[in-house]
């Protein structure tokens, strides 16, 4: 079986450092250990390379439709999909996903799609005909796409449990957030919920939205942090992430449906890769009850799930974990076991291959 993944935005310095960019890379890398696999993405210049058995083709991005990073225009994409048994697109509404689906349909190649937050298209019946399989990152994601049930499989996501792992005897201290500093991530609530005497490390930078008030959100966070023990680490190098996770007492993803500015966010989180990486590191987590996060966190076992935007509830759960190291350690152990059992990238790849076979791929 030959599988070609299409991701509109590259992961890394030439793209974005979000979960929607990391996911295609990690899944394709895991699939490459089982089948012939290639990842096609877009960047400032064309290139081809082979990384850990995975062929990666970067097509030169000539333009962005409406200026959006998910809608790159590039030459050679249709040609890059030749020879695939399965074309697996990422982001249902992205321009490359549409082009890839039509090209694969014309060639009678099997067609799958995984969405990472752009949401459903305007023509669900057309989407149902264009794609043979909707491989979602959570049951919540499946519900938002409104895809035919017989074509939908939740394959979730994973963490590299060799890279993200606990270090016996390592000192753990403080609260950690890892992600983009955009209003729907709810970091403002996290700062306000920080218990007295606790430290908070915020690892991440602002999103790509240059419009107010979103562009001013990082500055707002700095103002809220005054008088509290908060460190803004900026973008952390990929090589340093594992140590950051396993040095924290608790990792938090406090995303919200309604931002501090009153904006309503329909789809705040589909999965939460940072939670899986933290749990793989033996670190308990606290997450909001939004999107697919409650599907990942076992409340009271691997961490806690709290009502979104509830500062008092968040403060209380943080206080429990920070004040009881033995309980936090036990939850961290359970979190690691939970990820190893269900949320590795190899497990995700196996679910993906099963879905391909049900789609009729060779």
- Radius of gyration, in Å, reads 20 Å
Structural class: alpha/beta
The number of helical runs is 13
Which strands sit side by side, in order, in the main sheet?
Answer: 3-4-2-1-7-8-9-10
Distance from first to last alpha carbon = 6 Å
Strand fraction equals 15-25%
The strand count comes to 16
Give the % helix. Answer: 25-40%
Q: Output the helix-strand order.
A: EHEEEEEHEHEHEHEEHEHEHEHEHEHHH
Largest sheet: 8 strands, mixed
Q: Could you tell me the mean pLDDT?
A: 94
Low-confidence stretches: none
Global outline: globular
Can you offer a commentary on this structure?
The protein contains 13 helices and 16 strands. The chain has helices at residues 19-31, 77-80, 95-107, 124-130, 139-145, 187-193, 217-225, 241-246, 273-280, 293-296, 311-323, 325-342, 345-358, and strands spanning 2-6, 36-43, 47-51, 54-60, 63-64, 72-73, 86-90, 110-114, 133-136, 152-154, 175-178, 200-203, 230-234, 250-253, 285-288, 303-306. The strands form 3 sheets. An 8-stranded mixed sheet has the order 3-4-2-1-7-8-9-10, sandwiched between helices. The protein has a 6-stranded parallel sheet with strand order 13-12-11-14-15-16, with helices on both faces. Strands 5-6 form a two-stranded antiparallel sheet. Helix 1 (19-31) crosses helix 13 (345-358) and helix 6 packs parallel to helix 7. The mean pLDDT is 94.
């Amino acid at each position: 079986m030959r599988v070609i993944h299409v991701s509109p935005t590259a992961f890394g310095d030439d793209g974005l450092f979000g979960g929607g960019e990391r996911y295609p890379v990690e899944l394709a890398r895991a699939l490459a250990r089982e089948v012939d696999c290639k990842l096609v993405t877009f960047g400032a210049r064309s290139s081809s390379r082979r990384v850990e058995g995975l062929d990666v083709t970067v097509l030169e991005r000539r333009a962005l439709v409406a200026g959006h990073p998910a809608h790159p225009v590039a030459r050679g994409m249709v040609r890059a999909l030749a020879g695939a048994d399965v074309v697996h697109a990422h982001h249902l509404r992205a321009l490359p996903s549409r082009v890839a689906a039509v090209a694969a349909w014309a060639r009678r190649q099997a067609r799958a799609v995984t969405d990472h937050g752009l949401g459903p298209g305007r023509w669900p019946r057309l989407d149902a005909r264009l794609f043979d399989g909707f491989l979602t990152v959570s049951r919540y994601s499946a519900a938002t796409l409104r895809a035919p049930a017989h074509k939908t499989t939740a394959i979730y996501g994973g963490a590299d449990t060799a890279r993200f792992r606990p270090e016996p005897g390592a000192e753990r201290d403080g609260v950690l957030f890892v992600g983009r500093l955009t209003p729907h991530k709810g970091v403002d609530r996290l700062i306000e919920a920080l218990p007295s005497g606790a430290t908070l490390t915020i690892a991440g930078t602002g999103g790509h939205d240059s419009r107010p008030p979103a562009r001013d959100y990082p500055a707002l966070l700095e103002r809220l942090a005054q008088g509290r023990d908060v460190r803004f680490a900026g973008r952390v190098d990929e090589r340093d992430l594992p140590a950051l996770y396993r040095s924290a007492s608790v990792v938090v993803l406090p995303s919200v449906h309604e931002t501090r500015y009153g904006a309503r966010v329909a789809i705040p989180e589909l999965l939460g890769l940072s939670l899986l990486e933290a749990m793989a590191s033996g670190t308990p987590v606290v997450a909001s009850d939004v999107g697919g996060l409650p599907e990942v966190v076992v409340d009271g076992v691997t961490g806690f799930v709290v009502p979104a935007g509830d500062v008092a509830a968040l403060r209380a759960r943080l206080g429990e974990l920070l004040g009881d190291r033995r309980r936090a350690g036990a939850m961290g152990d359970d979190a690691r076991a939970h990820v190893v059992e269900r949320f590795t990238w190899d497990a995700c790849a196996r679910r993906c291959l099963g879905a391909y076979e049900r789609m009729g791929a060779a």
